[in-house]
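Data card: per-record layout.
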Amino acid sequence: MSKLTKTVVDKAEPRDRQYTVWCGELKGFGVFVLPSGTRTYFVDYRNANNVRRRMKLGRHGQITAEQARTLAIQALAEVAKGNDPLEERNSTRKAISVKGLCELYIKELEEGRILGKGGRPKKASTKITDLGRINRHIIPLLGKKQVTHVTKADVTAMMKDIMAGKTRMSEKTKKLRGRSVVRGGIGAASRTVGLLGGIFTYARDELGIIEVNPAHGVRKPKDAVRKRRLNEDEYRTLGRILAKAAEDERYTRTVEIIRLIAMSGCRRGEIIAVQKSEIDTVGSAFRFEDTKEGQSVRPMGLPIVEYFDERNMDGDSLYVFPGERNPDRPFGSFPRHWEKIFAGTELADITAHVLRHSFASMANDLGFTEITIAALLGHATGSITSRYVHTLDAALVMAADTVSGYIHALLNGAELSHTHYALDRGSRKAALERFLTPRQDAPMQAEELDRLAA
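The structure for this 454-residue chain is written out next.
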């Protein structure tokens, strides 16, 4: 066995089961290699009672092989003195409060060592959201309890308190209007329990404070707003509300953004902050550089292509919808405008996410498969399209055309029903063939063409 170095650890390929690579120079020093690819340094020793102990030192990448070696040498020196470094560390950590654990987690979060989706460090916007839930819900309700004393019942009680609005508050902010309201509720409760579960997983896997995660198995409430969707009549109502709002020049930009969200199924932030360089009307695609799923290529329906073709993209700002006061930042008045546009209307209960959910539901009504809908929405699990495809498949472009065109017609007041949408079999096949012509790198078999056109 050779000395355990960065090169040796990097070359240790993951297997079906966890295995160990030992250092040939320092007895007891090694690294675990997990099937996931995670590599964790440790030191193995026997304490004064001849009990074998194995103490984790840190993950490869978060600490170097040399730093881990130094920690191993220090631990073995303590063992030689008759001490048990793992027991001493556990005793100290087990006395930590939930607030203290949250502070350790926040430090790791801010340094980019807490990973989110796809094994990537959490995005800046996600960090802000996590910090808000920690400081406004978790610490006020559980902060004083010792981590080892927290039970599943405690987590459930915290969740119910958030649902009941116990942590509801109005706080000062640095924004122009000076205050924001923390409302709590079902959605906040469910998401906070999810975050707390992640914090306890960190305490278990990284710190070794607990063996069982008390947040696991807690029955979380379903967020009712995610079931809300628009039907055909409500889309026509939405069109009338937006047309009326557009009569006031102050709301023109917001109305355009809302229509784009409705016709694309994109997230609110993706449209508000879309940059000119991310618009590809020739390829019928959004090419987002930074979304919830990372880089994402999303098919763009024909009504949206026509909108961007006709829009004046001149100006120095990088953004399609620049801020009114600061063009170097995206448009910032959307939330306030949204409230004013929908206040007192039949659709006062909807959110931008309802428009995204409605787009997906409408695509399902029109007969598209789950994997196609996932690709339209940019879900990483639905299709490789979200990250890797540069030339979109003709079938996806056709799907985007169909769903966007249908919603566009409803917003403009057309009396349609998805059960007899205007694109019959022949015209849908013709549309597919039109898109296939310039895309020789993505051919489709004739029978697949017939199936999609059916």
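Known properties of this structure: Confidence is low (pLDDT under 50) at residues 175-179, 381-391, 422-426, 431-449. The longest strand covers residues 39-46.

See the next section for split statistics.
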